[in-house]
Each structure stands twice: as C-alpha cells, then as structure tokens.
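ok trying again, last paste got cut off:
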Amino acid sequence: MIGKTIIEINVGDAAEFTKTISEADVYLFAGVTGDLNPAHVNEEYAKKTFFKTRIAHGMLTAGFISAILGTQLPGPGTIYIRQELIFMAPVFFGDTITARAEVVEVNTEKNRLRFKTTCRNQEGKIILDGEALVSPPKAVV
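nice, full thing came through this time. structure:
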C-alpha cells in the first residue's frame, strides 16, 4: 500500500486523528521512551505542580500528527523531514485530542509538502500548534 503522491495532493487538503488519552497511553509512552518525568507518572508529585495532577507527555500528543502523516495524508511511504511544535496547554488524562494536518504548500520540484499542524482538546482549545515538512511517497512504476 502506498500513500498519496505529490500530484494527488493540493493546498487545503487535510486529515484528522482523534484519541482520548488514557493512563495506559501515558505509561506505555513513558516506558517506550524512558521519559519517566514524575509530572506524567507520579500523582503525589504532580499534585504539587502548577497543574495539580499528572499530564500527558507533549510528545505523545505530537505523535498523533505523525499518525496522520504516516497513515492518512500523504500516508504510507511518507518520510518525515521536520516538525516545529509549540505546546500551548497541558493535556490531562481523559482529554480527547483531535490532531489535524492541513497542506499549506506543495513543492513538486523537491517533492515536499508543508503542513499546518494542530491538536485541540475536547473544548476546541489548541493545545499544540506547529508546522511539518514531509516528502510524500513517489509513484511506483
């Protein structure tokens, strides 16, 4: 299976991915990455922080953008080149996050796509803002 090639994609094309953050998601991410920051995995510690409870890893949320680019738009075969991220607000356990990637530039000469990337919580608040650059798959001949 191959994703969309550059000639199949236009400025304004977009895709979304939605997921509710569970405690298991956070612990699995912590285990895989080794990021055992107590702000994510220790409720007693987290109670003393600014947020008063555990929060999800920012990079867990950013991974939802990767899911879009690698499975939907452009899809399988896409190579991630760059991602800029601004973390705007915390993500709490139980939050439902919708990631969105929208094409803002198509460069056919270099086979590059630039995306505006965002993640919003269930209240519509932007919790992550950024931009991605990818190389979509090339047509198989």
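cool. The mean pLDDT is 96. Helices lie at 23-33, 38-41, 43-46, 58-71.
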